[in-house]
Write a structure and sequence with these properties.
The complex is a heterodimer of chains A (220) and B (422). With 220 residues, chain A is of the alpha+beta class. Chain A has one domain (31-219). Chain A contains 3 helices and 10 strands. The radius of gyration of chain A is 23 Å and the shape is extended. Chain B is of the alpha/beta class and 422 residues long. Helices cover 41% and strands 16% of the residues of chain B. Chain B has helices at 25-39, 45-51, 61-64, 70-76, 93-106, 126-134, 149-164, 168-185, 190-194, 201-206, 234-240, 267-273, 284-297, 304-307, 318-327, 336-341, 358-361, 366-381, 385-388; strands at residues 8-14, 54-57, 84-87, 112-119, 209-211, 214-215, 225-232, 246-255, 310-312, 401-408, 413-421. In chain B, helix 8 packs across helix 15. Chain B starts with 7 loop residues before the first strand and ends with a strand. The chains are: A alpha+beta (220), B alpha/beta (422). The interface between A and B is large, with 51 and 46 residues. The structure holds zinc ion (ZN). Zinc ion (ZN) binds next to loops of chain A.
């Protein structure tokens, strides 16, 4: 029999609880805010209206749920295909090799070590992350994974980040974990030490200086 | 049964690109069609009604505060009964919409297909806008990190830089090339409108760190605008623009992973190109779609830079334009480092790239962007630069063959076209 991802029966779905959870942030929908009018230099009229619209998303993780539960337990769960042997982290719940015909993969625990493949030192980012600047976004090959995963590298002096450096995975405290990528991050392997300062590192350090200053002002 | 046809472009026009622009989508688009009526006097929307379709090129419903916003446009243009659909393929929306129009005419299902692209992105704050765009990354793994596309691209640039021994200055050369080319394009180009002067390598090097190796002037800015390009068969090309038509002789469209980390060793690429390609530093979908387009147009991969006279490519970042050169095969007979140091993509070089200014100089209102690139290339090949640009400093004289590139995600969808003067 062909193995498929199961479709759970919905009859036990707790509509009442979902309604309660929806109140986490009360949704307002379309809400009138403001109107402004004027004329441009050439006499063209303009009118602007500010209208607020929001939504609370529910992400249902389905077959990826073991990965998220793993994070809550302080584990990285990747997948392995029983047919071709490929290991991937982030997980792929069906194999990516065409000849494996979307074989449903098995969950495996990944080691908490990896190699940094490439990186960037962020001097600007999304609103939610501005106060963390400058931070390092790194692509890391965890264990024997054939894919790299992006996450934050916590390193005191970002300009010392190097490709191919060994890193370890650190988890947030158990009570702070939420089953999302933000539960873990990378740190340099304690056994690793950076190569000496060079022209590029000096340059990156200099580029970071105004970013530190900007963030200090932002936090005030 | 419909019969296969050759495919032509008989006209095209772009609105000014700026941010924000105080206009509705229907007036933006109506402006492009009215301009087309002026530029191509024999064109009539009745031909579209009788023998055509319309492909709309629009990226984000989030920005539009409206689902299926092209439904507003279609009847505003006076069109009912005419088949229409919208293409969204991230940053490659324009290229993909052009590809769809190409396929429709090629297959003989339609004879006249205007491709109408637009994006209004100033409906939300700039930071919210960047966040909207980042929704095209895998939100389950990437959104919560607080990074946006600039950060991902910078990560891809870092490994590319290291692999080929490139410097920040090499990238800055590309940034100022495009900014400064836009000064000749004139008032439709965002850099001309908002900055209005030429920049230097020093300006780029001194600008704010966005994500190493990218600084402020290495990046395109958020913009708004619209563009319409007229795709048609030979009969209509002769009727509309006997002296100003180009033929689309090659069209390629390819794809790569949504998460850049997943292309480190993807089986599909390993089978095609061997171990280690593309890794995170190369754009395999660009290479693959270029190979397809080159083959159709009879262009040899290794000599492609000699057989193409002008190119308009998707320079969301100076670094990605460089990665595109490499993926297009232009560095095959040299090295990426030597390619830029020989000034090959400059106006005086062998293959002037983004003479119109590209995304960095002209702007990037997503749904209109790929069409702007195609229109700029069309102008170059039809001798229309003196009519369309402020000066002829960025005209590639007697260009016969052009390349147009459109690019999405972190290289997730890429199209390439070959245009030929007729
Ligand atoms: Zn497999």
């Amino acid at each position: 029999m062909t193995k498929l991802h199961p479709t759970p029966n919905n009859k036990d779905f707790d509509w009442k609880e979902w309604k309660e959870l929806s109140k986490l942030i009360p949704e307002k929908g379309w809400v009138w805010q403001n109107v402004r009018t004027g004329s441009a230099e050439d006499g063209t009229d303009w009118v602007e209206q500010q209208i607020y619209y929001d939504m609370l998303y529910t992400f249902r993780l389905g077959a990826l749920s073991p990965y998220a539960k793993g994070l809550l337990n302080g584990q990285l769960l990747g997948t392995k295909c029983a047919k071709c042997g490929d290991i991937t982290f982030p997980p792929r719940v069906n194999c990516w090799t065409l000849d494996c015909k979307l074989e449903i993969t098995d969950w495996i625990e990944m080691p908490l070590t990896g190699i940094l493949h490439t990186y960037t030192i962020c001097g600007f980012a999304a609103k939610s992350a501005l106060k963390k600047l400058p931070f390092v976004l790194a692509y890391v090959l965890v264990g024997e994974s054939k894919t790299a995963i992006a996450n934050i590298l916590k390193i005191d002096e970002p300009w010392h980040t190097e490709t191919n450096m060994p890193v370890i995975i650190k988890f947030a405290n158990e009570e702070d974990r939420v089953g999302n990528i933000i539960d873990f991050w990378f740190e340099p392997d304690p056994k690793w030490s950076p190569s000496p300062m060079n022209a590029e590192k000096e340059r990156i350090k200099k580029l970071c200086e105004p970013v530190y200053e900007w963030v200090r002002r932002l936090k005030r | 049964m419909p019969e296969q046809q050759q495919v032509y472009i008989a006209g095209g026009t772009t609105t000014p690109f700026d941010y924000p622009v105080n206009l509705q989508i229907e007036e933006l688009v109506a402006n492009t069609i009215r301009q087309l009526y002026k530029d191509v006097p024999n064109f009539h929307l009745k031909d579209v009604r009788d023998n055509g379709m319309v492909v709309y090129s629009h990226f984000s419903v989030h920005f539009a505060h409206q689902l299926t916003s092209y439904w507003i446009l279609h009847d505003h243009l006076g069109l009912v009964g005419v088949p229409h659909f919208r293409i969204d393929n991230g940053g490659n929306t324009g290229g993909s919409a052009l590809y769809a129009a190409y396929a429709l005419v090629r297959a003989g299902l339609a004879d006249v297909v205007p491709v109408i692209g637009y994006e209004l992105m100033g409906s939300v704050s700039q930071s919210k806008g960047s966040e909207f765009i980042a929704i095209a990354s895998d939100t389950r793994y990437e959104a919560m990190l607080g990074a946006n596309y600039t950060n991902y691209y910078a990560g891809l640039a870092r490994i590319f830089m290291e692999k080929y021994g490139l410097t920040e200055e090499d990238f800055a050369e590309i940034a100022i090339k495009n900014k400064n080319n836009a000064m000749a394009t004139g008032e439709k180009a965002q850099h001309y409108r908002t900055v209005g002067k030429k920049l230097t390598i020093d300006d780029v090097m001194a600008s704010r760190l966005i994500s190493y190796p990218l600084k402020k002037w290495d990046c395109c800015f958020m913009s708004e605008g619209a563009a319409t390009i007229l795709v048609c068969n030979e009969k209509y090309a002769k009727q509309y623009s006997p002296d100003h038509s180009i033929e689309i002789t090659g069209a390629g469209l390819s794809s790569c992973t949504i998460r850049a980390g997943d292309r480190y060793a993807f089986p599909g690429w390993t089978e095609k190109y061997g171990e280690g390609y593309p890794g995170l530093g190369e754009f395999a979908a660009c290479r693959h779609s270029a190979e397809v387009a080159y083959k159709m147009a009879g262009i040899d991969w290794k000599d492609s830079h000699k057989q193409i006279d002008v190119a308009e490519v998707h320079d969301a970042f100076s670094t990605s334009e460089f990665q595109i050169y490499n993926a297009l095969g232009w560095c095959e007979s040299t090295t990426p480092k030597q390619f830029i140091r020989d000034k090959m993509p400059m106006m005086e070089g062998e293959i002037p790239t983004n003479p119109g200014g590209g995304l960095i100089g002209y702007g990037h209102p997503v749904g209109a962007t790929g069409l702007m690139s195609a229109i700029e290339c069309y102008y170059q090949l039809t001798g229309l630069i003196p009519r369309e640009h402020k000066s002829t400093d960025n005209e590639v004289k007697d260009a016969e063959v052009g390349l147009v590139n459109s690019h999405a995600g972190t290289g997730t969808s890429i199209s390439n076209f070959i245009f030929k003067r007729v």
